[in-house]
Amino acid sequence: xxxxxxxxxxxxxxxxxxxxxxxxxxxxxxxxxxxxxxxxxxxxxxxxxxxxxxxxxxxxxxxxxxxxxxxxxxxxxxxxxxxxxxxxxxxxxxxxxxxxxxxxxxxxxxxxxxxxxxxxxxxxxxxxxxxxxxxxxxxxxxxxxxxxxxxxxxxxxxxxxxxxxxxxxxxxxxxxxxxxxxxxxxxxxxxxxxxxxxxxxxxxxxxxxxxxxxxxxxxxxxxxxxxxxxxxxxxxxxxxxxxxxxxxxxxxxxxxxxxxxxxxxxxxxxxxxxxxxxxxxxxxxxxxxxxxxxxxxxxxxxxxxxxxxxxxxxxxxx
Length: 318
Prior knowledge:
It is built from 13 helices and 2 strands, in the order ααααααααααααββα. By secondary structure, the protein is an all-alpha fold.
């Protein structure tokens, strides 16, 4: 799949946090090119702005998952606390050296809003634990306890559900995908283990059995959110986020992509416009430090990058 030159130039005319990924994944630029761009992320644009917002105690906005001043009356989930900041910085490619001392500071100063549990020990929510597993592996924190937690809390159908603590025994698309992302990031950073790889592959099978889109019991679509694309991705499941995960997992594991991904890939393709762009269909409500994409209803650089990356990977292998 070839992007129109004007669309490619538009993607390249972006913050270093996105540009280096366009250079690496869409242009197949030499490492010295995209690495030089990635090295600018901590000192320019989005990365520099978010690093500058870090508190003296290592946190952001005074909290682990929620900011210290969070209110039940707020419109939507606030996205300014520590976990969300670390997720963004890691995904933008910031080197851990830009956060020297952060892992130790969070171990000393940050506690989960749930029962005051220690930050790097995780808590009971699959998604929270997945992000903490990935962020801990990136920053060099000891997250071995969280890694074991995922093996122990995988449900009989193969995946995970944040509602397990309330008695749920069925996996969730949202929880399973976020868990898989955390496990893969941990494995890429540390090498992982056979036990964790087995758990990851079982979680992938949970989604593949459902072709990433359908209920296994009835065959119906799991929800309108599966084909509604937003950025930042946050916690919500959709076909673009899921196929981009399977792209990363396939490149890590090797072999051919699973053919059961085909329908979900076509859901992604169906949203591509004639100029090669994807529109930002909605934005998850809630305050953030700053916006990193365009307005709702307008072309999205980040979604266009992700959608193009998925289609280039898929089409090159079929």
